[in-house]
Amino acid sequence: MKELWVQVGLLSVPLLAVYLHIPPPKLSPTLLSWRSSGGYFTYKDQNIFYRDSTGAVGSSDIVVLLHGFPTSSYDWCKIWEGLTQRFHRVIALDFVGFGFSDKPRPHRYSIFEQASIVEGLVHHLGLRHQRINLLSHDYGDTVAQELLHRYEHNKTGSILINSLCLSNGGIFPETHYPRFIQKRVSLRAAGCSPYGGCEPSGEGTNLGIRVFDRLGAVFGPYTQPSQAEYWDMWTVVRTNDGNLVVDSILQYINQRKKHRDRWVGALMSTSVPLHLIYGPLDPVNPHPEFLQLYKKVLPTSTVSVLDDHISHYPQLEDPTGFLNAYLNFINSF
Q1: Choosing a second label site near 229 at 20 to 30 A (CA), which of 70, 98, 107, 318?
Q2: What is the CATH number of domain 43-330?
Q3: 77, 118, 99, 82: which is closest to 27 by C-alpha?
Q4: Are 257 and 251 in contact (CB under 8 A)?
């Protein structure tokens, strides 16, 4: 009997390793290129990955890109070159807990900390007194709202914001319906994942590769990522054991509700040029409910609505349409 349990134990080790995807998957050539084109700066004791490309000659304009959940700065890869043809500096970072940045645990992840990291990067690059254009998506929209609040209230260390362009984010908690996320949160207390059963670990629910099958629900039917693109998304999440901190990061949903007045108020009171690029098939911020509220609350903001089949990741699903919409906004003032 003892030998039987030893055999079962030995068999369970590789099975557990497969389930947890240990060791982490290797980076594809495209991800290796993305990482090698960037660098790191230190915020407190955390290493934060960023990319900083010098682009258009004769332009002094700077754009900082703020990515969404649960992915990374790599979300901007399809419009990066186009942005460098218009802007003097194109800058993006991986928030702490995301991408190639550190993913500490246990850790209290917050939108406030992420905003401070953006400010830290801008200061690190010597751009503290330069006016910055912010382009954000999803989770990054909320970070941008906090940065806007600090700017409008002249907080110490705040960055100078020249313009803000939002895209498909939970700007209003009342019109935000996180699809696969809701299932994970509802099962978290039981230590279970809707994508891979229950786990005894107390370090948080493991985000398996199968989560990205569900992520397909927030892409349009004609704009689904390829298998290679799905794998790259998962690989970046899995880097530095990021799958083990997802539940901690998810507290941003509650933070949005708690600080709604602060973050929506920043948009309502600002004189900074505002724009929204919107994929209308988005099930997370659905049409027409989200767009009607946006136009009602922010009547002075301009809006670009992309084709009907574009969903929650417009910069990946329709990079040309997204880039044109953004450049039209930037060139309008």
Answers
A1: 107
A2: 3.40.50.1820
A3: 99
A4: no
